[in-house]
Specification:
The protein has 423 residues and is an alpha+beta fold. Helix content is 32%, strand content 23%. It has two domains: 2-194 and 331-419, Aminopeptidase (3-Layer(aba) Sandwich), CATH 3.40.630.10; 199-322, 2-Layer Sandwich (Alpha-Beta Plaits).
Length: 423
């Protein structure tokens, strides 16, 4: 296998590359991406999109496995099978999308092409990448070339929940020799190093009391404000990584306070006795879930030592009903010399004429976690390569059409190089 990896990529005949590229239609790419925009697929609500993709890919002649990741929650794994004796490759992208922010100037689920951009919620993270990998696989299939190895399309659920969809796929036996995750980091970017990520939940406990006797109560919301100030100022236990200088970092993304553990909100005349905050943490390879939990406990215990009425709980892993990630997803650093990284690099140059502008780390993109963590841990060499775009304050989300078109072609040639030859 090592000998194969050292072969000149010219062992893939130029005519074969031309045949594959000739099977890519930019208008078809836009149509598929637009269809995916029209299907809302928020985290935990991916099933409609998964079922649509299962039908689409089955009709296109792929072998399809519609997997149930959690009861009622599905994802789609599709295979293009080779004749045998070749390497296999997985193109991996998540179909769950970010929460919808306020401020959109257009319907988030009505695709619009304007000034070289395709607008629609979910297209940036990451239905453009899912589109590119599907269209790349379709090009290989339509080319009619004899393929030795297998190509897997992993359209996974729950990447925003610690990657539970990719974990499920791996546990169900989906394995390949190589993989590319099509996260939105840029058509001239190959990422091999990125943050770890985890979610946790903090509760502060108080004592309910009517406003007329407010002084006799203990306000859980006020305690949470103190807790947030303390954790925002917290010194994490870690070793500085000059490649990722903005780590570690955390964000308190959601807060709710009220009466009782179900946060009863009727009765603003009563002091809150239970307040909850959702926190996301990004961290480097010197840290783990255990060290981060210890840092939180140390910080909050210091508040408790100052105030005997300060009481808190940390919930990790978060209850599944919260839709948060259940794992501490490790930071990743894949060697740039890995064959899959070099394959993407040389096929990018074949298509665009240029080497990647960024190779290894790109900030702030490397402050985002992704499913390469799980693939690498499973022994599958991998990297991140996918089309980027943008947004304004998380609304009016778009992808750059030229990036989606370029990534489709690079993925098609990379997959061709991976599976057309013998191992």
């Amino acid at each position: 296998m090592a000998e194969t990896n050292r072969r000149d990529p010219a062992s893939v005949a130029p005519d074969a590359r031309r045949r594959v590229l000739a099977c890519i239609d930019d208008e078809e790419i836009v149509r598929l991406a637009s269809d995916l925009i029209r299907i809302p697929s928020f985290t935990t609500e991916e099933t409609a999109c998964a079922e649509w993709l299962a039908t689409y890919l089955s009709d296109a002649g792929f072998e399809v496995d519609l997997q149930e990741v959690r009861p009622g929650r599905k994802q789609t794994i599709a295979w293009l099978r080779g004749s045998g004796g070749g390497r296999s490759i997985m193109l991996n992208g998540h179909i769950d999308i970010d929460p919808l922010a306020d401020g959109w100037t257009r319907d988030p689920f009505t695709p619009v092409v304007e000034d070289g951009k395709l607008y629609g919620h979910g297209i940036y993270n990451m239905k453009a990448g899912v589109t590119a990998m599907i269209m790349a696989a379709l090009a290989l299939k339509r080319s009619g070339l004899p393929l030795r190895g297998d190509l897997a399309l992993a359209c996974v659920a729950g990447e925003l929940n610690s990657g539970i969809g990719t974990i499920h796929a791996l546990e169900s036996g989906v394995r390949t020799d190589l993989a590319v995750v099509t996260e939105p980091c840029g058509a001239n970017t190959i990422i091999t190093k990125h943050t770890g990520t985890m979610d946790l939940v903090i509760h502060t406990l108080g004592r309910a009391m009517h406003i007329s006797r407010k002084e006799q109560g203990s306000d859980a919301i006020a305690k949470m404000m103190r807790a947030i100030a303390a954790i925002n100022a917290m010194a994490f236990t870690h070793t500085f990584d000059r490649d990722l200088p903005g780590l570690p970092r955390l964000n308190v993304g959601s807060i709710i306070g009220g009466r009782g553990r179900n946060h009863e909100l009727r009765g603003a005349y009563t002091v809150s006795d239970f307040c909850t905050a959702y926190v996301n943490i990004r961290f480097n390879a010197s840290q783990s879930g255990e060290t981060i939990l210890a840092d939180f406990r140390r910080t909050l215990d210091a508040l408790k030592a100052e105030d005997l009425e300060f009481d808190y709980e940390i919930e990790f892993p978060p209850d599944p009903s919260r839709g948060l990630g259940p794992l501490a997803k490790a930071a990743l650093d894949v060697p740039i010399g890995e064959p899959i990284v070099q394959m993407v690099k040389r096929n990018l140059k074949l298509v665009s004429g240029s080497d990647p502008e960024y190779l290894g780390v790109r900030l702030p993109y490397s402050y985002a976690g992704n499913d390469t963590t799980h693939l690498w841990a499973a022994g599958i060499p991998c990297c991140v390569y996918g089309p980027s775009g943008g947004y304004t304050d998380y609304h009016d989300v778009y992808t750059e059409l030229d990036e989606m078109f370029l990534v489709t072609r690079v993925l098609a040639l990379t997959a061709l190089e991976a599976i057309v030859r013998e191992t």
